[in-house]
Amino acid sequence: MHCEVEFLPVGSGSKAGDAIVVRYGDAADYHLILVDGGHAETGDNIVAHLKKQFGPFPVLEHVVLTHSDADHASGLRTVLSEIPVRNLWMHIPWLLAEESRHLFSDKRWTPEGLKAAVKAEYGTISEIYDLAVEAGCNIFFPFQGADIGPFRVCSPKRATYNYLLPQFEKTPDPDQGAIEAAHIWIGKESLTHKIFEAAKAALQGWTEETWDNERLKDGGITSASNESSVVLYGAFENNARVLLTGDTGVSGLWWTASYAESVGLPLQQFTFVQIPHHGSRRNVGPTVLTNYWGRSSRKAQRIASRRTFQHPRMTPNIHVAWFSTHLSAVAASSLRHREAAKFIGEASRHVLDIAWRKACPSTHRSRNIREHRWTAALVERSDPLAALAYDCREFCFVLWGGTV
Question: For residues 282 and 251, is the Cβ–Cβ distance under 8 A?
């Protein structure tokens, strides 16, 4: 089965978001998946993109909302209004709240009262749900073990989501003791904690990094909503493997790894990995990166020492692309420690193509294009088309695999 993954431009700076189009199948018989819909204004861009690339009447086989944050969900309202969608996969907090009722601090909640209170806080998700029902979409909860086209959901487990839901910023106060007893306590982020994290990030930026002292540290914490993100593992022909991570954090990555190993999905063999939460240092750590990618390499140290910090070049043995919309310098450095080279630039359209396209459609444009979308990617030097992708790096990043 062939696969093409496109990361569309969504916002910039602190307002980045996700919108990912996946085409899978064969050239004459393929299906489309949309993973997340970005901001409200992104919806029109997604619709226009689908019609331009896949004809005037595209159909989405699957739409996946990784989690309920606005920078992933808002644009789906326009998509559902204008494009036929057969299957919608998303967590619906108010329909799942009853399973978590015992984990809220106020034990007086009735099922209907809790459902109404939670639904009132999720207006965008409610609109998406209503549009899907009106359009006759099949609606599913994307929990661990579900298959969505060529992808397997690795996280979250439904039982884990039940413990995360009371910790969302928009839900009633959680019963901390009950959740701590299950070892899934994350908490709701306070303003004080946000200020502390900002100060810590600034301090890390002033700290000189050596090869034996990574600035990226374990212990990064992201929100419970982010940890509830759907993580998708895709396996394709020629042993190509893709991991889409949404905004998941270190816990979500460990849950994913545990599940993958339990069902025989190999780690450290990925062709492409999306770095969670737009490349935030709070969503990865050196230990979990080692689990997915391997230990810090002295070979990578020698390579890095001969190349500029901003644009490390390709090496023959590297075969994984790490994508991020706004990759933090601390996270980027840890990836380089593990021989993950990167190219960084602004792009109008990013394409990961596994055994499908032989060119970069819609990307050979003026270098003045500025869409404010960051990426990290690489191509094996042994690939005969590596030069093409390298030359396009300022506005298009392509990872070729298999027979082209």
Answer: no
Residue 50, Cα to own-chain centre: how many angstroms? Answer: 20
Q: What is the pTM of this model?
A: 0.79
Going by C-alpha positions, the residue among 125, 63, 59, 61 that lies closest to residue 88 is 63
Taking each continuous run of H as one helix and of E as one strand, the counts in the chain are 16, 14
Instruction: Tell me if residue 170 falls in helix, strand or coil.
Output: coil
Query: Which three-class secondary structure state does DSSP give residue 4?
Result: strand
Strands of 398-401's sheet in order across: 138-140, 85-89, 60-64, 29-35, 20-26, 2-7, 350-354, 398-401
* C-alpha–C-alpha distance, residues 318 and 259, integer Å: 26
Quick: pLDDT tens for 141-198. 999 999 999 999 999 999 999 999 999 999 999 999 999 999 999 987 665 655 655 5
The burial class, CB within 10 Å (0-12 / 13-18 / 19+), for 315 is middle
Q: What is the DSSP letter of 9?
A: P
- The angle that helices 191-206 and 329-337 make with each other, rounded to 10 degrees, is 60
Let me know: does 70 contact 122? Beta carbons within 8 Å. Answer: no
Residues whose CB is less than 8 angstroms from the CB of residue 122 and which lie 6 or more positions away in sequence, other chains included: 68, 93, 94, 170
Residue 36 carries which side chain, given as an amino acid letter? D
Residue 23 tokens read as 């085409």
HSE-CB of 33 using CA atoms within 13 angstroms? 22
Q: Are residues 222 and 244 in contact, defined by beta-carbon separation less than 8 angstroms?
A: no
pLDDT tens string 315-373: 223 334 445 445 566 666 666 555 554 433 333 344 555 544 333 333 332 222 222 22
Q: Taking the CA atoms of the chain, what radius of gyration do you get in angstroms?
A: 21
CB 335 within 8 A of CB 298: no
* Neighbouring residues of 299: CB distance < 8 A, sequence distance ≥ 6: 317, 339
In the block, tokens 């050596």 appear at 210
SS (H, E, C) 78-146: HHHHHCCEEEEECCCHHHHHHHHHHHECCCCCCHHHHHHHHHHCCHHHHHHHHHHHHHCCEEECCCCCC
pLDDT in tens, 220-267: 899 999 999 999 999 988 888 889 999 999 999 999 999 999 999 998
Where are the extended beta strands (E) located within 214-366?
231-235, 241-244, 272-274, 321-323, 350-354
Length, in residues, of the chain: 404
